[in-house]
Amino acid sequence: PGAGTDLQGITTVAKRDGGGDDADYIVNGTKMWITNARHADPLPVLVKTDPAASPAHRGMSILLVEASSEGFEVTADIGKLGYKGTESCEVVLTDVRVPASQLLGGVEGRGLQQALSALETGRINIAARSVGVAQRAYDEALSYARERTAFGGPIGDFQAIQLRLAEMAVALQSARLMTYWAASRMDEGVRMDTESGMAKIAASEAALSCAMDAMRIHGGYGYSTEFEVERLYRDAPLMSIGEGTNDVLRTVVAKSLLAGKAVIR
Questions:
Q1: Which entry of 113, 134, 167, 176 is 20 to 30 Å from 205 by CA?
Q2: Which fold has domain 7-105?
């Protein structure tokens, strides 16, 4: 619960029940914001198999925990502003016994590496979802600007509306191309943490701005649940938070550029 972006700060611990490499793990800890926790089986759980390791990541591993395990409990769904299609839960593990065969990769100490390797793909996933939110916001705004009339004509005739639509279209298409670029790098099989981070930042910021502009174009109706834009407005903020906050990703991208690990041209 207190870790967030600081993955090395997790406190869930897995201790061997006796000696030998085939001894079961006994897991104790709490996890927050676990997506689909009521359906995931097994659930990959990042734990500290060696809490005293230095640096901390050398003592981290991932265990595949069966949902039917005694002591494994999904205690509560977390109420959210938006993105209500999937549940986000608190998971409590109390003396959960996990066979040694459920250690991901079969070797301790690789958990953080395994978790972070999934984040590159996850950030492209977030970028793609952001493009979807931005696209829908743009579509709804464009349609409304054509249909809604005021002062004797469609509001799309007003320059203020036209400027917002143009800005939305530019942000949307830029985000789409950035996402395609990052995905193409993944298809090439190269390390693309910089590219995926840049795509996630650009696309999620586009989702936020497009959702806001769509609401402004809809006026008072944009604040009503009768129209879809209010949902887009609630869903968009998650994109700037999930899979690493945008501010954290900006530092990741900058450090990669300064170290010469990525070249932009």
A1: 113
A2: Butyryl-CoA Dehydrogenase, subunit A; domain 2 (2.40.110)
